[in-house]
Amino acid sequence: MKKHQTIYRAALDKWGEEAQFDQAVEECAELIIALKHFKRNRANRQQIIDELADVALMVGQLSYMLGDDLVDRAIEAKIDKLKCLLATDAWDGRP
Ligand SMILES: [Mg+2]
Fold it and tell me: How many Å lie between the centroid of ligand 1 and the Cα of residue 4?
């Protein structure tokens, strides 16, 4: 998550925190729409990849803003939980 910190700092300085949250919401919405279109053959794989890249960048931006180390720790905790769920016979498919 610590990659691209210089560009995240510059974006934050130029547009501010609130704009970054708004942009993250917008990029997530675009990915949702692309996935819905993909399911109905109205979007191709490259469009999904492009929207994933936008969301990944905004996840990086927000992680930078909120604390990369905190996000990394939360991810590790969720991965550990997922490992436990996958090892359980009673797993219903939801993380
Ligand atoms: Mg986008």
Answer: 18
